[in-house]
Write a structure and sequence with these properties.
200 residues; globular; alpha/beta
Length: 200
Amino acid sequence: MGTRSKRSRRCPQCRMLVDLCICQLIPCYPLATRLVLVMHYRERVKTTATGPLALAALPNSELRIHGEQDSPLDFSDLDIPERRTLLLYPGDDVPILSRSLLDKDNRPITLVVPDGNWRQAARMGRRLPGLGHAEMVRLPEGPRTEWGVRREPHPEGLATFEAIARAIGIIESPAVQAGMEELFRLMVQRTLDSRGRPEA
């Protein structure tokens, strides 16, 4: 079966096979935090990319595509006085996202999240234009990833959806994080089911 026929059998929103679609189970969290997900154009078509599912659960969010020569990105429009921009970055040399860090500036957050594995996100985060005003932050240590579909070479690496859920849990509410993680586990289970693999 060719690539085109495989894609045609997938839901355009949740990216699951149509008979395993989870769209009706996606919660809706209209938050003050604005999510800006940045994906490389080559990652956009991959069915194992988890970031787009977070966009479906967070209506105050948007997707920006990186790497297209005809459509260069510029994030200077995010530099507005009424909002605080945080760039989620997987580096040991940046502050940890925490309540104490957030309490230093009570403006609503625009959270910029580069999509990809640890190395891709680190490289992208350093190159995104117009984000000189953004504060780089990293997630605190936590449980290892539950996403066993794509190989993660870095021991602290997370699926993009997991990283977003944990960041939202700190910025907004642990209850929202828990609801998003429940959706993520369902996505993992149905993805494994579609591959004929039992849950680990």
